[in-house]
Queue: 2 jobs
Job 1
Amino acid sequence: MEEKQVNLNSEGNRWQRRKEQRPSEIIQAARVLFVSQGFAATKVADIAKLAGIQPGTLYVYFENKESLFKAVIEESIKPLLHYADNIIDNFTDSPQELIRTLVQRWWDLLESDTCRGIPKLLTSESQNFPELTAFYTRECIDPARNMIYRILEYALNKNEIRLLNMEMASRIIFLILHQLLLHAHSFAEHEPHPVSTKAMLNAAADFIIRSVLKTEAN
Amino acid sequence: MEEKQVNLNSEGNRWQRRKEQRPSEIIQAARVLFVSQGFAATKVADIAKLAGIQPGTLYVYFENKESLFKAVIEESIKPLLHYADNIIDNFTDSPQELIRTLVQRWWDLLESDTCRGIPKLLTSESQNFPELTAFYTRECIDPARNMIYRILEYALNKNEIRLLNMEMASRIIFLILHQLLLHAHSFAEHEPHPVSTKAMLNAAADFIIRSVLKTEAN
Amino acid sequence: MEEKQVNLNSEGNRWQRRKEQRPSEIIQAARVLFVSQGFAATKVADIAKLAGIQPGTLYVYFENKESLFKAVIEESIKPLLHYADNIIDNFTDSPQELIRTLVQRWWDLLESDTCRGIPKLLTSESQNFPELTAFYTRECIDPARNMIYRILEYALNKNEIRLLNMEMASRIIFLILHQLLLHAHSFAEHEPHPVSTKAMLNAAADFIIRSVLKTEAN
Amino acid sequence: MEEKQVNLNSEGNRWQRRKEQRPSEIIQAARVLFVSQGFAATKVADIAKLAGIQPGTLYVYFENKESLFKAVIEESIKPLLHYADNIIDNFTDSPQELIRTLVQRWWDLLESDTCRGIPKLLTSESQNFPELTAFYTRECIDPARNMIYRILEYALNKNEIRLLNMEMASRIIFLILHQLLLHAHSFAEHEPHPVSTKAMLNAAADFIIRSVLKTEAN
DNA sequence: GATGAATGAGCTTTCATTCAT
DNA sequence: TATGAATGAAAGCTCATTCAT
């Protein structure tokens, strides 16, 4: 007697889940190479080698190079989909602390093993993969800016914010946070005068705080 | 009586000899495609087509695709090599005006016809062309930051600067300016809530001014 | 009852995996075309077709056309590296018999399946591949002349040699043997009055014997 | 009223004559490169450069690369067409002297400025240009062997010839003479133990004389 | 006639993908 | 499932040839 084999992971999901059975090592390997070399310049054979498999095996799990790319983005973006919750878990700190926490958590999350370099990759390939870019813009960038906006609102409620356009300030803050990530994967290692990550993060937080919060020393 | 048939650039001018203009036309075409698609994803045939020539003609002027890429970067970077002089021509304005001018001129220069998209391109290809990246870092990024630093010094001398680490502040300001350019060539067109360039530039200037200068409303 | 349809190499075996035999098959095909057309005039696609593979397959085994050429030479030369042993296995025959044997064995060895046409090929391409030519000169030509010299010494010891400069005679004998091979791959088939290989070999042996050995009829 | 323009140099001539107006410098340059590199490996642009002209100019005089090649052969072969008269001008010398003269004149003629390397070139390209090869075989090789045959006849008449097959001996003598030329353009410069041209020519003459003529020391 | 920039067909080579094992 | 040799379309590049100057 045959039981109908139910496929729980129906492929109708826009962002398919393959979960356990998918060799996430392939995705990790692919992400590393895509980030450093770009999509077109990365060879499938090199991904396979880095993942410790043969080229043919890769095609057992991914339909083609492009769908692997999408899986890389999709998978790496997952932790960011509800990052608001991840990054800032309570709004009871002082606004200043909140901003410092924001910057640090932002870095920790986006440079974590699973999504390191994804913003750089999406910036580079934005024209080649417009759907992914639109998805990222809608699901990650926009929520991120909303969260920043909420932090500013929180400061506003505490009467600690300076006179400013909160919408535009959110955007600029986002630019700073985003560029911190890009810089780490592009020019950082060619800097004539390198600066530690910690120093950069602190400087970014200081810069933002000075710009948006009321502080003694103006 | 036969009128001489005048060929209005229909196909008779395929054999135009334009030794002088060709290289820069090819470079312009190549820059556009390299910026939007990346080096590896851009086909030589497409560059040729966009430049209005045949593929073989491209090789009359450039040894290969890579040297064309280098020519694109080097040529496009030229206006930036002494951009300090280009961007800020006098330090007699108020510091606030100076920063507003900086942001606007930065944009005008870097999004001008000759170098539009180059920062995006170099960010994307930094790992694939380390020498070019080092060159850009040394000759463009570093001087740019120095110029920003001098603006802060100017404000310091006028006693209009807030208490801050000028070196690190310069770096963050540079990040903002740089990211403005990248954003324009990546996510801008996929924004769910687009914002005009003018608004972004003003917001960036405001943000920077609030962060580094003494202002009434803190 | 259905007989299993046997596919007699019609097209079902396009995907044959024959890692072991492939390289030497490619080399054989390449040798044939290189010998008749020269290196530059031979197309990689034609070599592949003659070897019964696709162009891409060739590059699984050889880095490029030039390294295939080198492999052809190196592989084809192998049987010649110790040909002295191969050609003349004993020095107990009469000098005259020895020379007849030399000529015949020389022909049999150098026109065997594995090295047919190589002297012609190396003559043609000597300027384009100087290292290979030097290698061939040192490892094949020089030892060949030494062996000829030893045959003359053997005749000398038997007091059957005429008064002559043995060093120079060896060179001339080598020229004759070498040219026999070249002629077979160049003008032979365009001869207005063709002569059989056998006749040529005998004539060459006769000519050499008369020149270097004491014979009754002078 | 138009007179029909009469082309005095009708192209019906199998081996066209362009005489004075043809830049024989082009042919000289082409011969040098064809001999050392082969037909396919020689670039028209390099021939033009060596001839001191521009690529386009070459096509004023030659229809295409192949017809230039034919002109090279055709022109270079001219001195050989009646070389019997050129090489041996009298049959009054002793047969031995005649053979020595033959070898020396053969060399002087075939390595003269106008035809140096042609035998090597034709050997290399024999399969690619069968008509030229047939022509060369018929008009040069065959007459050359006939002349050698006549020398042997002359020796026969003087009762100075050994017992031999004169037809086959002529062929072997020709092989030797031909190979002397080939060797000079292929392996000679890679010889581990070089020998002067003069020594080789003498050795060849000695070798031939010993083989075909009655001599005291047998 | 001479030029040399421009051509474009055709070559070598690459590499994402397939499939017999 | 995993393999990796084989594929073949497509890319970069060459160079004999053309033709406006």
Job 2
Amino acid sequence: MIPYLCSRTHSNGKDMTQVKKVIDASTEERIKNAARAVFQKKGYVAARTRDIAEEAGINLALLNYYFRSKEKLFELIMFETLTDFSQGLKDVLNDECTTFEHKVELLVANYLNMFTKEPDVPLFILSEIRNRPEDLFAKLPVRQLLENSVFVMQFREKTATGQTKESSLLHLMMNLLGATIFPFVGQPLIMALGGVDKPQFNQLMQERKKLIPVWIEAILKTE
Amino acid sequence: MIPYLCSRTHSNGKDMTQVKKVIDASTEERIKNAARAVFQKKGYVAARTRDIAEEAGINLALLNYYFRSKEKLFELIMFETLTDFSQGLKDVLNDECTTFEHKVELLVANYLNMFTKEPDVPLFILSEIRNRPEDLFAKLPVRQLLENSVFVMQFREKTATGQTKESSLLHLMMNLLGATIFPFVGQPLIMALGGVDKPQFNQLMQERKKLIPVWIEAILKTE
DNA sequence: GTCTATATTCTGATAGAC
DNA sequence: GTCTATCAGAATATAGAC
């Protein structure tokens, strides 16, 4: 604990995503916003530059004027998306000033807020990672996120009484990310299974903000 | 409980997927196997009929001779994939002869076995559902899977002591499917996060067969 | 900077020989 | 049934006018 470094505040209501203004933006910004929307909704291959141009309200040629190619534009969007995503982990996991339990709450709340606003992002990221894993991990040093983080140290301390298996940490991460992210990845399936609409689904996500941290605690006590 | 109807047996080791023989199969079967592999790996749009033909070791024209079009071939593969997937739920959820706890164990074990063999299937299904929801739900009556199932009745009985909120069932399904399926959907991410290789990943999935049912019980006790 | 028109490449599908 | 060669359409990217 390094108290004098702990001036940053973390509130559950804090948004990690910025909803960019689509109106009154420069042409370049409007193209980027359109590209983000279309890429996230359809994925790289299915997204057509014509769709993006139309969504941005500009001509097809202008897209190449600003960004040279579909590929370059995609890489830019993907980099920003991955940065937002990993920032949600990074900031929380390495905070010296919060407890393990508080970190879990913050992670869950942050991601639930983020993906309630942009529900297509998780499936987009995971799909594109499948299509070009090496490419994306080069830009996202995901291993370092966890390794030697305050979060992991706190986890080891917390579970030190029993003999913690090395795999426990990874199971925890799968459960934490699974409980938080999976509902969005499987959103149409979940909505169909439960017969709920979008507002009801979002209500469920709000409930999960409180529930998941409790569940995680209960799970950790079973070991 | 209807004991005299309970002759079927369920073993954890039972496979719900059949690994089709690729060698010594008819041309039609070889094309289907190739199509399944390519579609599941790349998704509908990114998969090229030329890739499928090459994978099957036949000519491009032959693919259209047997299946008329890429679209028709895809619909066939998707139908089979969804049938396999929902069968894994259906058979277990409506069995009069197993307890709630046993159903959970069977669901988890079945899906973990299935997806350990075919890790691309979950992301494939969820991606394609996103691309054409109405199309796919027409073929997969997913709402009926849960509604009025033995599993749901048993769940209501089990949680009848406390006041069970209607949303609890859906949270349970999200947790159950999330804990089981999410690791496969996010496989590259999980492997990178933990610095583990494929065999180690599969080992973790084996561990989860025992762990997830215990966790689910612990979670239900928190309500 | 922005547009229209066009070049180029890729991909699904078919014609026709064997 | 299986192949080679080819067509038709679509999508990315660019040339060139304004």
